[in-house]
């Protein structure tokens, strides 16, 4: 069965993997792997998973985890650059780290910080840590974020990447029911071209996209 890719809207998609819980399809155009729409979690079930997260800026382990995105992005932005942490979660931490480094930050999260007014402003950089894999409409959402950046602005995305089909079948990342789309390096290369950006991969889970 061919489904429409939620990133690039291609219908050139095919079966990639299945397990006892869900099916996974892969787009032949942008290489995104995705769960069919009818197998995504309901809003209440999705929120229940998010409410279990216990992330906090007081947790040094969580800060170390986020440093995989924070460190390379911090090296590429100007002093005082203004940022948005998109999908900040119940315990915003990446925004705190940037603020501590002298960068004014706004936060947005549809569950925990739902002020959509922040999405009508422009930013020098935007972060999306462990967010992309949750997006039901990643093409629409990521294009919207790119539109909030000026030329030279950065979009920093941290999400674990698909490597191959055999590894995918054993991957713990697919066990989370709120993970519904899965990016590979090829997916980010397609995305960068589509959004008129260039992409770097400074760490295995990190993609940095800069607007031309």
From TrEMBL:
GO terms for biological process: methylation. Keywords: Methyltransferase, Transferase. It comes from the Bacteria. The keyword Ligase does not apply. It holds the Pfam family Methyltransf_23. One of its GO terms (molecular function) is methyltransferase activity. InterPro entries: SAM-dependent_MTases_sf. This is Methyltransferase family protein. It comes from Halomonas ventosae.
